[in-house]
Design goal:
It is a single chain. By secondary structure, the chain is mainly α. It has one domain. It contains 2 helices and no strands. The longest helix has 137 residues. The chain is rod-shaped.
Length: 165
Amino acid sequence: MSFLLPDAGLLFWMLVVFGIVFFILARYGFPIIVDMVDERKRFIDQSLQNAKEANERLAAINAESESLLKSARDEQARILREAAVTRDELIKEARERADKEGEKMLAETRRLIQMEKEEMMRDMRRQVAELSIEISRKILRRELSDDVRQGSLIEEYIDETLKKQ
């Protein structure tokens, strides 16, 4: 039974050693441990505070970025509207210029056609005149080849001339 019940001397010395160890720990060990725990607590509190501030800054940055994105989208829409208006104006001006140019070209073409028509008419008149002269020459040669016919033709022309006067 001596294993289950400690001896009184052993119990005394265990209490003395426990008291000395407790005193040394209370005097030197516990303050260091408590300081370390307090420092760790401060570090955790500071980290939580920094995380909270970071989240607040992130929320502010997100709000600002959303605002910037919205303003950028608005600006983009405005620029696209202006570009569409400018494009429509340019297309309208180009059509007007093309219409005016087309009208000028059409007028020039009509003028050229009229000039060619007049030239053709002059050419036809000249050709008709040449053909008439050629036919007259052939008729006169045939008519004037005989002396009797020449005389009668001359008398006929003289009579016509005298009648006109």
